Amino acid sequence: MYSREYSLKTRYNFRKVLNYGETFKTQHLIIRYLKVDDSVFSKDEPKKKFAIIVSNKFSKKAVVQNRVRRVIAEAIRLNIERFPNNYYYVFVPKKSCLVDGKPNVHSQEIGAEIDSFLSKMVIS
User: Which CATH number is 19's domain given?
Assistant: First the structure.
């Protein structure tokens, strides 16, 4: 699990990324990202923020939602230094993470998808 200081927190920031951000899709994830101005971040704060959205549409069971959220968070933590600064990132899992209503994805698979995202990300 990545540190709380990297968490995207306000509803305004979530909506901003979801409405105006760019999209990258993989087999198990939809990644939305938005470049933000450097002045948004305070001096001591890390210059990148992450969020993971796992809704009831994904699975009705909180246990399943939390398991998938933990797997994605672990993959983010392992790759956190590779993400470019001055960006907000929102990760949304696809239903392909589930088999018979149970999570069937590991942090290595998600990590590989994050690797492909980072290699193809358009940095402007």
Answer: 3.30.230.10
